[in-house]
Design a protein that fits this description.
The chain is an alpha/beta fold. It is 40% helix and 13% strand. α7 crosses α8 and α17 packs antiparallel against α18. InterPro entries: Bact_solute-bd_prot1 (IPR050490), SBP (IPR006059).
């Protein structure tokens, strides 16, 4: 039986909210408002809602550029930041009621399916999206599409990579560029454990985005098929979970992630002290290193994920926020044009990197001089970040989001990972089949 609207509004729990800018910003109780262009006479007011305060930085910069380049069409941008659940709930209720929605709003990817039910109350962006698809990682746009209409502008690629502590790897006698497959990774891990005081890796139990889901996606698998049917217990997913269990207990090259996930203070201290050689995370995780692991500056190198087999995919797109224009705006064309100016133009994509440190969806800017200018990310990691992205730009698979995506997150993080990875009371097949049966029963 389908969930009631009340459950959809208040019951969907998602742990993916950290993906676009920070757990702390998303969970803040304080609502913040900032007005850009409020002193310009005759400016058209546009409202923007977000759940990540950092995203306002991008829109502030964009509004200032817009007003400078378009003095005959200035805008007054009212940017409001809400707690994650509050913002998504308020938006859903406003769209259902037909009033109270902003002109422009961020929607986190795991919540997105809730706004695609029936006839979307959002405006298509095809006139602005279609011209840039050829130069973009198109799978990141498909996430926010329905029936050939593109409703959302992505915030980043979220390309998942492997971060290597080169100091530990050198001590172990391992050339990180020799690690091409997960089998190579295991063998390198054995050398790390044998020759250093560190483990190779950590496996999380409370955030499936930081190991299980990207490893599933790079195999061409998913949790749902194109028809929205749950396939969590398929062969590829069972084998992936078995691999995670094996690196812990069979190969003994990994430990459970301190704090359950790699975005906790406990983990940051552990990693900063050199207790593990690698981190699997999207490119946006660079900011976590800068903010929380200062002692690793100059030691970390970014490489593609190991492939499951030679020639296989070496990355996955994880996390994300699609920014949309609602059908309640009184300035539809201006709102769409400003959103495209902010997130779809070349300058806008360059600023996704320069302002936020995100990997921009338009891969044609990855080779531009602007993204290779010295900044705090290059100072920490060294050159070559965008060379890695260019290697893997065509290896990001589309993922299928449904209203039950948050249920998969809850089942994995509370039951599957606990029974398979921590307690070892169920096999991967048993745990995934039980979770699949439970989710199917929710429909």
């Amino acid at each position: 039986m389908k969930k009631s609207l009340l459950v959809l509004l208040f019951g969907l729990l998602s742990l993916i909210l950290v993906a676009c800018g920070g757990k702390d910003e998303a969970s803040s109780e304080a609502q913040e408002e900032e007005v850009i262009g409020g002193d310009i006479e005759g400016a058209t007011e546009l409202t923007f809602w977000t759940f990540v305060g950092q995203h306002v930085d991008l829109f502030r910069d964009s509004a200032e550029r817009w007003n400078k380049e378009n003095p005959d069409r200035p805008i007054k941008l009212v940017a409001e930041t809400y707690p994650y659940d509050q913002m998504h709930n308020n938006l859903l209720m406003a769209l259902q009621a037909g009033k109270g929605a902003p002109d422009i709003v961020d929607i986190e990817q795991s919540k997105y399916a809730n706004y695609m039910q029936g006839e979307p109350q959002l405006l298509p962006l095809n006139d602005y999206v279609e011209p840039v698809l050829e130069d973009s990682v198109s799978s990141r746009f498909e996430m926010y599409a329905k029936d050939g209409k593109y409703y959302g502008a992505p915030t980043h690629v979220g390309a998942t990579v492997m971060y290597y502590n080169t100091e530990i790897m050198d001590q172990a006698g391992v050339d990180i560029d020799s690690i091409q497959t997960w089998d190579d990774f295991v063998e390198a891990g054995k050398k790390v454990v044998e020759n250093t005081d560190a483990v190779m890796w950590n496996v999380g139990t409370t955030d499936y985005l930081m190991d299980f889901f990207p490893m599933v996606s790079q195999r061409g698998s998913d949790f749902f098929n194109e028809e929205g049917e749950v396939i969590l217990d398929n062969k590829a997913n069972i084998e992936t979970l078995q691999f995670l269990q094996d690196v812990l207990y069979k190969h003994e090259i990994a430990e459970l992630t301190p704090g359950g996930m790699n975005q906790t203070e406990e983990y940051y201290g552990y990693m900063n002290d050199g207790n593990a050689a690698t981190v699997l995370a999207p490119l946006w995780y660079m900011g976590r290193f800068l903010d929380n692991m200062p002692d690793l500056k100059g030691k970390m190198a970014i490489r593609p994920l190991p492939a499951w087999e030679e020639g296989g995919d070496r990355t996955a797109g994880m996390g994300g926020t699609g920014t949309v224009v609602t059908n309640q705006t009184e300035h539809a064309e201006l709102a769409k044009e400003f959103l495209a100016f902010t997130k779809l133009s070349k300058e806008g994509n360059i600023n996704l990197w320069k302002v936020l440190g995100f990997d921009p969806p338009r891969w044609d800017v990855w080779e531009s001089e602007e993204v290779r200018e010295d900044n705090k990310y290059y100072e920490y990691f060294g050159p070559g970040t965008f060379d890695t992205l260019l290697e893997i730009k065509d290896e990001i698979n589309e993922i299928h989001l449904t209203e039950h995506t948050p249920d998969v997150a809850t089942e994995y993080n509370t039951n599957v990972a606990e029974s398979v990875l921590r307690q070892q009371t169920q096999s991967p097949e048993e745990a995934l089949k039980a979770a699949t049966d439970k989710i199917r029963g929710m429909k």
